[in-house]
Backbone:
């Protein structure tokens, strides 16, 4: 365990998580009861273990460049066995419907919903800041007056000051100023609550996630949204690369499919690299990086590593001719490096620059791009970034 | 689990707050530069302690500040200006003397006194012309420009500028030649020589003030003592290495890709009855077929290769104050440092980083974390580079294992397995880059990642 | 007399050596620069630094353009003295040293007399050795204490005190044993050197300095943008410090950074059409919120020669 | 996509600006369903080639303007200026930045120099 942060979770809850999230991939292995025949087969190198493949289903959506899994059973499998996808209306696992139902129940019972609790907490925080600012201004005015009269001046914020400045630890909400929670009866007539809730949420898989599930472990079928028909691997291969047109600059629309710098390919290489090493890899926009790496999964620990994907063209000519506007292809300015490093060290994540080489068209013939065999020509390597503090490196 | 941290206002973590207490302008909390409280500057003798940071206001009140604000500001400013008026000086019994020779960019030390010379200066043979005599080679003590400038500005070296005609006759220093140099003149004339930029000087002085010994990595002249710590490590091909040069380890790792049997439309075949290890670790292992790691060759075209003019050359060797240092025979450095001007040079490219890593030694695995009851601020620091262990058996063993994994019956796991997170966070090789923006220095450590060697599953 | 600030330029870096100039810059012109020299009596730390003050290039451009400062080509201003001038200078130095020595001798004689007994030269020598030994022990003890408490101590012991390898060729000349100790001053600025001649090496405009190859900043659109933004923010009464460490180009203070926290981290955007990645907004917004600053995007329009500002904050929801 | 309950409200703008369609779709759903804003409407923001969203946060009266953009795009200060202009210079606009994993973050952009709260 990297850090003891997860330790505050109560034991039963942790055990529960260990049980629910025991499997790192949607595939399951069923080991039959040991029999004499089985042990003989095992000795011969033959396996009697059954592979249980869940065969989940999703729809390709070109607009959001993702695959939607709307079937609740499949969503649960994909989330619980390897943390694939994200609820499009939730922070992680799709929970929108449950939250709505709970909110209705809370309202009916005259309690606050969790969203309202959050809103109230933010409101209180605001009030605290306001109170503190007021107290500081008053202390400053007092000091000012003392100075003007030639009396001894106490520092506005020091402990020996005559006023106490509220701190986050000491401040208490004076009075419930707002968001008491709405009255149960009038605002929400009963008949409104009777209206059935439609689950508008789906589990959204990124294209690399979908391709990983589909291509490597064959536990996902992607359907064409127009025909409803399952797409072949070759169709998926083309459709996912084609979906990257939003990256393209307008002038060269639509972009040439046979390019090594297709953003889907570059991202897939990174995604596959970390998945194959056993990491759970999720998007990192909140921390201004491309990906976050979790050792077992987001329910267990904070992410240890923050990944910035840096594509490196083997041949600068390919970059010049590129229809794509790939990010992070040039070395960063120092101010940008400090920015992202600061953001991530504030939340105790180590920043990793993950370099993906983009094969030169002159070295590798582009017709290899017609199949995933092209992946053999990319390479991934990491550079670990950390601030160096000489004063702390003296002994 | 990251939910609580996703909001940008999330409370800063304890590690960063301990940073904040670090009484150094390394401080991460924000606007410390130029914002120090000079009124807290220790004045008298004795060992001063950290002056507390002054409490600052949010903003001046209307009209440029209230009476009290202006008063406090005035006090802070005069404390600062008073401190700046101090002149560099030393007792005549402890000051050293040198003559600056612009033609060779060296200061010839004519009188060396004090502890500084145990880590500064080197011996250089020079032809000396004496009147009426033939030329003779004398060994003499010389300073590089950064060494001379540093000693001059702290007032421990009195430097004059070479002149054939001018002689002084100051008591106690009868043979001083030339005109005295001010600190200002030393800045104007010594910087810009022998590859010394202001940025490099600022980094040098910063580290010297912290007690580090700092030497040039690339000897400017053959007589300059060179650490050359890596030559034996990387440049002497062993029998083993020569044997393996035609079969690099990365090829072994990805040999499946090179065989016709690999089906790119179906990389993982689990359905067959013959598949022996039907469990998650084997599945993940079979998924590791994409080339990764720094040993995979980096294909470049002519244009992307690191140019000779790249500023990314290791310039200084750093020795911690606690490392025994002999200036005539320096050992392997604790850190290797590159200095760049942050305004004109972006961070290094992958090609530049690769070139840097190529000349650096592999680090021994990080030491187990020292648990401390109060804080564990050392936990994320890189390991100490113990020079004696660089070529220790562990390093060789891991090399062997990486070259001939099948002989050891292992594919990925090396015997080198301390806390994998520590290894992943420090990297196998490290280079420190100091990026200087008009005098403010940011130090970053770039580590060569090794994720492919330490899978999680 | 020209009261403009004298910026001593060498290697395209501008230094201010006169403390009075540093005072004027800060108090009158709201220009901070960065102190970069070692403070003579606090030479083992990096928190408080001394002269010279190094200016950011945009500070230099601003000061010269507004005729608040002039550029001096410093290497050329340091001509060598003629023999008579140096002779005179050295004579004055010797005179000052002799004065110092006689003052010390007078004080010592007085002390010796008041001690009630005249010491033999031998006794004096012994006392001196004793004192020196004590002093050394004190220093060692202090250094040892320092190294054990290095986390709380700002002042680093001189490491070289522990190792005392003799420097390779020990130069022979030692001061005559009879000369008493006196203080040797290393002149900080060159103004005290009679042969320093800045008057003849002065550039009052950027154009003149550029032609002479002494100062060429700004050369690019980006550098022009930085100068334009700096001038714009200065004109609004702010103080600016370098911001690279903090995720931008400048830290922007509402008053002297000695007394006020910065309100913004500012980043310079070269032109209205320069690419702005949404990820930059995320990062800057996030970092600002965590450090109680707002982020300021400062967009330069080179044609109109004006700056437009956008402030970024976290939305507070989502 | 066409079967999604919010498609009818977006159908006028989504096909018009295909490159920004994903970001708008995501932001609109998040605001309506996850943030639970009221009086949510989509408006055509031609100068930025996309639709924008207006609405009120729960229990507030102020109408806020949200401009969606995807992490993969590049914007500029003139883009920001155009957005302000076409929205008739509101006090601030909220940039909804979307990522393909369905994550979304909101940042408030104000014109001019707006100092942080004390």
Residues:
């Amino acid at each position: 365990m990297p850090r003891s942060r997860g330790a505050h979770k109560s034991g039963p809850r942790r055990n529960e998580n260990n049980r629910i999230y025991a499997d790192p991939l949607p595939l399951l292995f069923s080991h039959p009861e040991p029999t004499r025949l089985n042990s003989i087969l095992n000795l011969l190198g033959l396996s009697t273990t059954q592979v249980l493949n869940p065969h989940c289903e999703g729809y390709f959506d070109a607009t959001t460049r993702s695959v939607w899994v709307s079937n609740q059973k499949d969503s649960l499998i994909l989330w619980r066995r390897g943390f694939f996808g994200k609820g499009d209306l939730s922070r992680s696992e799709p929970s929108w419907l449950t939250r709505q139902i709970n909110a209705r129940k809370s309202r009916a019972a005259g309690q606050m919903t969790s969203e309202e609790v959050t809103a109230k907490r933010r409101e209180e925080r605001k009030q605290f800041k306001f109170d503190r600012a007021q107290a500081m201004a008053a202390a400053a005015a007092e000091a000012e007056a003392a100075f003007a009269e030639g009396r001894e001046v106490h520092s506005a914020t020091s402990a020996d000051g005559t006023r106490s400045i509220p701190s986050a630890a000491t401040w208490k909400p004076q009075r419930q100023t707002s968001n008491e929670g709405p009255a149960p009866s009038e605002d929400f007539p009963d008949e409104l609550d009777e209206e059935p809730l439609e689950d508008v949420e789906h589990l959204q898989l990124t294209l690399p996630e979908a391709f990983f599930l589909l291509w490597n472990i064959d536990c996902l079928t992607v359907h064409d949204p127009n025909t409803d028909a399952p797409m072949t691997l070759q169709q998926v291969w083309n459709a996912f690369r084609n979906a990257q047109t939003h990256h393209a600059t307008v002038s060269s629309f639509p972009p040439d499919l046979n390019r090594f710098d297709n953003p889907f390919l570059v991202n897939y290489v990174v995604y596959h690299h970390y998945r194959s090493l056993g990491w759970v890899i999720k998007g990192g926009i909140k921390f201004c990086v491309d990906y976050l790496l979790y050792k077992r999964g987001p329910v267990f620990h904070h992410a240890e590593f923050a990944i910035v994907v840096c594509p490196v063209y083997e041949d600068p000519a390919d970059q010049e001719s590129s229809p794509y506007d790939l990010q992070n292809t040039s070395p960063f300015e120092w101010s940008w490096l400090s920015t992202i490093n600061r953001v991530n060290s504030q939340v105790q994540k180590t920043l990793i620059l993950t370099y993906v080489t983009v094969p030169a068209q002159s070295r590798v013939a582009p017709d290899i791009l017609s199949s995933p065999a092209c992946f053999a020509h990319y390479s991934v390597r990491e550079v670990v970034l950390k601030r160096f503090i000489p004063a702390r490196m003296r002994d | 689990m990251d939910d609580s941290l996703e909001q940008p206002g999330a409370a800063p973590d304890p590690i960063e707050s301990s940073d904040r207490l670090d009484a150094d302008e390394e401080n991460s909390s924000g606007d410390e530069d130029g914002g120090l409280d000079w009124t807290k500057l220790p004045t008298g003798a004795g060992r001063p302690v950290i002056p507390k940071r002054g409490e600052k206001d949010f903003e001046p009140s209307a009209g440029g500040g209230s009476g009290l604000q202006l008063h406090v500001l005035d006090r802070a400013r005069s404390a600062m200006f008073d401190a700046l008026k101090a002149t560099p000086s030393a007792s005549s019994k402890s000051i050293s003397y040198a003559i600056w020779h612009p033609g060779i960019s060296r200061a010839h030390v004519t009188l060396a006194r004090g502890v500084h010379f145990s880590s500064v200066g080197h011996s250089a043979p020079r032809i000396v012309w004496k009147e009426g005599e033939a030329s003779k080679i004398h060994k003499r003590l010389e300073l590089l420009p950064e060494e001379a400038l540093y000693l001059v500005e702290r007032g421990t070296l009195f430097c004059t500028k070479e002149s054939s005609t001018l002689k002084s006759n100051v008591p106690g220093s009868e043979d001083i030649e030339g005109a005295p140099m001010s600190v200002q003149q030393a800045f104007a004339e010594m910087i810009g020589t022998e590859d010394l930029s202001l940025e490099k000087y600022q980094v040098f002085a910063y580290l010297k003030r912290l007690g580090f010994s700092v030497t040039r990595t690339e000897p400017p002249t053959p007589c300059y003592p060179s650490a050359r710590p890596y030559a034996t490590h990387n440049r002497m091909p062993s029998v083993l290495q020569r044997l393996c040069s035609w079969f690099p380890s990365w090829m072994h790792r990805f040999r499946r890709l090179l065989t016709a049997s690999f089906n790119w439309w179906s990389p993982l075949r689990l359905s067959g009855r013959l598949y022996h290890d039907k469990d998650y670790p084997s599945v993940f292992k079979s998924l590791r077929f994409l080339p990764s790691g720094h040993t995979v060759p980096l294909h470049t075209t002519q244009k992307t290769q690191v140019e000779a003019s790249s500023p990314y050359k290791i310039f200084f060797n750093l020795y911690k104050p606690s490392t025994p240092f002999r200036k005539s025979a320096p050992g392997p450095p604790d850190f290797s440092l590159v200095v760049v001007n942050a305004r004109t040079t972006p961070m290094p490219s992958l090609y530049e980083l690769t070139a840097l890593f190529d000349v650096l030694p592999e680090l021994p695995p990080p030491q187990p974390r020292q648990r401390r009851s109060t804080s564990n601020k050392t936990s994320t620091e890189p390991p100490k580079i113990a020079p004696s262990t660089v070529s220790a058996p562990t390093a060789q063993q891991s090399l062997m294992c990486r070259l001939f994994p099948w002989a050891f019956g292992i594919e990925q796991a090396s015997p080198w397995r301390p806390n994998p997170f520590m290894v992943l966070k420090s990297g196998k090789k490290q280079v420190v880059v100091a990026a200087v923006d008009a005098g403010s220095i940011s130090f970053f450590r770039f580590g060569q990642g090794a994720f492919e060697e330490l899978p999680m599953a | 007399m020209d009261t403009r600030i004298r910026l001593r330029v060498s290697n395209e870096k501008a230094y201010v050596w006169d403390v009075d100039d540093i005072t004027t810059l800060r108090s009158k012109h709201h220009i901070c620069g960065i102190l970069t020299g070692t403070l003579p009596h606090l030479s083992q730390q990096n928190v408080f630094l001394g002269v010279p003050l190094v200016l950011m290039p945009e500070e230099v451009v601003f000061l010269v353009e507004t005729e608040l400062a002039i550029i001096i080509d410093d290497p050329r201003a340091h001509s060598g003295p003629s023999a008579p001038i140096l002779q005179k200078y050295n004579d004055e130095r010797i005179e000052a040293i002799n004065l110092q020595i006689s003052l010390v001798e007078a004080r010592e004689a007085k002390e010796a007399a008041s001690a009630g007994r005249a010491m033999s030269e031998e006794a004096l020598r012994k006392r001196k050795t004793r004192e020196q030994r004590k002093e050394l022990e004190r220093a060692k003890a202090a250094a040892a204490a320092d190294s054990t408490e290095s986390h709380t101590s700002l002042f680093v012991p001189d490491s070289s005190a522990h190792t005392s390898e003799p420097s390779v060729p020990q130069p022979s000349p030692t001061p005559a044993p009879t000369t008493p100790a006196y203080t040797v001053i290393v002149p900080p600025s060159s103004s005290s050197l009679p042969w320093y001649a800045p008057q003849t090496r002065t550039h009052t405009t950027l154009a003149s300095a550029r032609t002479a190859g002494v100062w060429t900043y700004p050369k690019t659109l980006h550098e022009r943008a930085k100068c334009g933004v700096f001038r714009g923010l200065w004109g609004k009464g702010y103080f600016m410090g370098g911001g690279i460490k903090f995720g931008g180009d400048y830290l922007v203070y509402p008053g002297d950074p000695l007394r006020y926290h910065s309100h913004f981290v500012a980043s310079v955007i070269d032109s209205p059409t320069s690419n702005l990645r949404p990820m930059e907004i995320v990062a800057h917004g996030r970092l600002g919120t965590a450090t109680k600053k707002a982020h300021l995007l400062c967009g330069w329009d080179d044609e109109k020669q004006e700056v437009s500002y956008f402030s970024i904050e976290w939305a507070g929801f989502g | 996509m066409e079967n999604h309950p919010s498609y009818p409200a977006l159908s006028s703008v989504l096909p018009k600006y295909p490159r920004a369609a994903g970001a708008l779709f995501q932001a609109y759903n998040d605001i309506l369903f996850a943030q639970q804003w009221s009086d949510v409407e989509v408006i055509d923001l031609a100068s930025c080639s996309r639709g924008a969203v207006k609405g009120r946060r729960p229990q507030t009266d102020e109408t806020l303007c949200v401009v969606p953009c995807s992490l993969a795009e590049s914007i500029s200060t003139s883009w920001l200026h155009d957005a302000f202009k076409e929205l008739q210079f509101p006090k601030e606009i909220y940039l909804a930045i979307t990522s393909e994993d369905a994550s979304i973050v909101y940042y408030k952009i104000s014109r001019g120099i707006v100092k942080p709260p004390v």
Chain A touches chain C through 18 residues (CB under 8 Å). The longest helix of chain A spans residues 114-149. The radius of gyration of chain A is 28 Å.
